[in-house]
Amino acid sequence: MKHFLLATCATILLVGCANEASDTPKEATKAEQPAVTPEVQKLIETAKNGSHAYDIVESLTTEIGPRLAGTDAEARARDWAVAKFKEIGLENVRVQPFTIPGWERGEETASIVAPYAQQLYITSLGGSVATPSGGITAPIAFFPTFEDLEAAPAGGLDGKIVFISGRMEKAPDGAGYGPANRKRRSGATEAAKRGAVAVVIRSVGTDSHRFPHTGQMRYAEDTPKIPIAALSAPDADQLERVLSRGEKVTIKMTLTPRVTGDRPSGNIIGEIIGSESPEEIVLISGHLDSWDLGTGAIDDGAGIGISAGASQVILEAGLKPKRTIRVVAFGAEEVGLLGGFAYVDANRAELDNHVLATESDFGATAPYEVQSGVSAGEDVLKQIADATGLPMSDVRTNGGPDIGPMSREGVPTMRFQQDGTDYFDLHHTPDDTLDKIKPEDMATNAAAFAVMAWMASEADTNFRDTSDSASTE
Ligand code: ZN
Ligand code: ZN
Predict the structure, then answer these.
(1) CA of 473 to the centre of ligand 1 (A)
(2) Which ligand is in closest contact with the Cα of 364?
(3) Distance between CA 302 and CA 225 in Å, rounded?
(4) Are 190 and 146 in contact (CB under 8 A)?
(5) Which of 319, 292, 307, 406 minimizes the C-alpha distance to 362?
(6) Residues labelled catalytic
(7) Which pLDDT score is estimated for 36?
(8) Is residue 376 within 8 Å of 465, Cβ to Cβ?
(9) Ligand lying closest to the C-alpha of residue 429
């Protein structure tokens, strides 16, 4: 139902609003500040009648595929993005380089050794150290949730492989991800503190398929680094059932990832230069890197398609924005928002000129509401919401993962909240592939991004509350 919204709006535009406009005196129309101007109507039609965003994610996933941060594949993706941005017609196309700590996956196998020998499907978490070459064979210490492990006393897990279960709740806004993700981020540290030799977690995901979900983990400086991997949901179920028999359970796991040292990454930037205030920037974005298991279609080829596709829609519609519309394809998001932080470092001098910023990084489904992260100009966001047929949410946003670092520096943000009910079925698995993306949903998203970028570039606000001294330190 949700992706009717823009179609309905476009229909109203084509039938109702156009007739109304011809009958209404110019002054009255202006006074009412209608959200749906002829330019907005043209953007929606151009997006809806084309496949700009879909064609871009199709190209990226077909011609590059998986593009793990810091690898040669991510470097090929940067070359692809530079060429694509130029092909679209963006100006000032450039790479903003930075260096990241490299990591690459190796072999990954696991099995229950006793009491019921069976293979398990696992994947190494990003950043994990390897097991010894012959693998680790050890008894399981089971924790139903990460909080149970946190509550466990010091010591007591010597020589054990810790298994942390805990199920993630499905929700349209992905609210279950944060809580479920704690074991992925910090499971190895908490287990190592208590003497464990390795960790397996139930995948952070909402599906019941036999694909484990990868994702970045972190080590604390002051605890031993132990290997950590994710089990597919059915394998976590299996292990829980075996444990429920009350016998001692032993598993064997072998992981051979390796650290590859300093590796290049980079953000790709392209612009539609503003006709009146070129120094003022409306930023739309996605992240170019992906995990290595799938082809990074929903995470986040879709965001690259939506943001770059929206800029293409504006250019194709022949519109000349007053402010600069900047498209950014962030590098190395998956391994710690490194592109987002590098962007802030490299662009610090012009952050005050960033009028509004957003990122698409929640798949390819249509949006269902508009979230605000501005301190002024909320009425313009409301007009953007009206023009795209969406309600305003009272949930505050920081604009998306890579926008977070600039949001903390005071850059105003907004976000089209997409329906992510099924996003975590696919997220960070081999199943993240192009066939999961509907072209019509991509067109809806591109229309929304194009309308937002256009209206923000034309608006008479910089979305900042300048009435107090807090914003001008
Ligand atoms: Zn992402
Ligand atoms: Zn991701």
Answers:
(1) 32
(2) 1
(3) 34
(4) yes
(5) 307
(6) 333
(7) 87
(8) yes
(9) 2
- Residues whose Cβ atom is located within 5 A of ion ligand 1: 299-300, 361
Which tens digits make up the pLDDT trace of 210-236? 999 999 999 999 999 999 999 999 999
Give, to the nearest 10 degrees, the angle between helix 439-458 and helix 38-48. 160
Q: Which CATH class is domain 2-25+35-102+262-464?
A: alpha beta
Cα 216 to averaged position of ligand 2 atoms, centre (Å): 9
Q: How is the chain split into domains, by residue range?
A: 2-25+35-102+262-464, 106-256
For 308-321, how does the pLDDT look when each residue is reduced to its tens digit (9 = 90+)? 999 999 999 999 99
CA angle 213–215–221, rounded 5-degree value: 140
Neighbours of 421 (CB within 10 A): 15
The set of residues, in sequence order, having a beta carbon less than 8 Å from that of 397 and lying 6+ positions away, is: 371, 372, 373, 413, 414, 415, 417
pLDDT at position 3, please?
42
CA of 170 to the centre of ligand 2 (A): 17
> 59-78 pLDDT, tens per residue?
999 999 999 999 999 999 99
Ligand of minimum distance to the alpha carbon of 427 = 2
Q: What angle do CA 141, 170, 3 make, to 5 degrees?
A: 155
pLDDT for 472 equals 44
- Ligand 2 centroid, distance to 425 Cα (angstroms): 12
Is residue 471 within a helix (H) or strand (E), and if so which, with residue range? none
State in Å: Cα 297 to ligand 2 middle: 11
Report how far ligand 1's centroid is from the alpha carbon of 168 (Å): 18
First to last CA, the chain: 46
**Band of pLDDT at residue 8, cut at 50, 70 and 90:** very low
DSSP string, 402-438: GGHHHHTTT--EEEEEE--TTHHHHTTSTT--GGG--
Query: What global pTM score does this model have?
Result: 0.92
Ligand nearest the Cα of residue 294 is 2
What is the CATH architecture of 106-256?
A: 3-Layer(bba) Sandwich (3.50)
